[in-house]
Amino acid sequence: MNDPLTLLRKGAELLDIPLEEDAVEKIGAYARLLLDWGRRTNLTSIFEPAAVIERHFLDSLTVLKVMPEAVKTAVDIGSGAGFPGMVVKIARPEMRLSFIEPNTKKLVFLKVVANDLGLRNLAFHNMRFERLAGKAEFDCVLSRAFSSDSRLLGSFAKFLRPEGSLVRMTGPALRDADLALDTFRIEKTWEGVLPFSGQYRRVILYSRTETVQAEP
84: cis peptide before it, omega within 30°? Predict the structure, then answer.
């Protein structure tokens, strides 16, 4: 089972994450772009196709284990090469998604992916998230191993509507005591392993606990 798309289908099945065939094909094209660009830019340190599928794409799909179905707008902070945001967008094409990424080369790559895959309703911000005024316009913030600073992560609330949520991807190094965040409470946690390597993953859904003053 070395074919990347076969691995993707099987991995999604093992994780119990429904994935349309169109999404499978788009992720396959995305993975090819990542491997091509990754050899010329600092997008990934993983170049073995099966590992790319598991550790980037299946890993990103675990967001769907906790993200509410009602989410229509989301922002991916520190997007990098698009994980998890671009993968979530492929799986949920009706969602409006914004990327905040200060690295220009990475943002250009995200735009190429979106164009090549025909993805719409995307916005791209080439800046640090602190510079983007909080307009409390999103249903959800996505964060993949962005920071362990609870105050920093707590500040993401400024981007969210009052009923909004934060989806945070963490690894085994973070202690349970370090999961609490200012302005958020934990609503749901998924813990499991990636289907082929057995690497541990944890994805946490937080909801807002207080009103945050948006920046002008």
Answer: yes
Kindly report each contact of residues 2-6 with a partner whose C-beta sits within 8 Å and lies 24 or more positions away, as own/partner. 2/50, 4/28, 4/31, 4/49, 4/50, 4/52, 4/53
With a cut of 50, which residues of the chain have pLDDT below it?
Answer: 214-216
Q: Does residue 13 contact residue 7 with C-beta atoms inside 8 Å? A: no
pLDDT tens, position by position, 55-84: 999 999 999 999 999 999 999 998 999 999
Three-point CA angle 164, 13, 197, nearest 5°: 95
Distance of CA 75 to the CA centre of its chain: 9
Q: Residue 117 has which token pair? A: 């895959």
Q: What are 87's two structure tokens?
A: 């993968």
Report pLDDT digits (tens) over 99-119: 999 999 999 999 999 999 999
In the block, tokens 């191993």 appear at: 145
How many Å apart are CA 174 and CA 34, to the nearest integer? Answer: 28
Beta-carbon contacts of 151 under 8 Å, excluding residues fewer than 6 positions away, are 182
Q: What are phi and psi of 74, to 5 degrees?
A: -145, 160
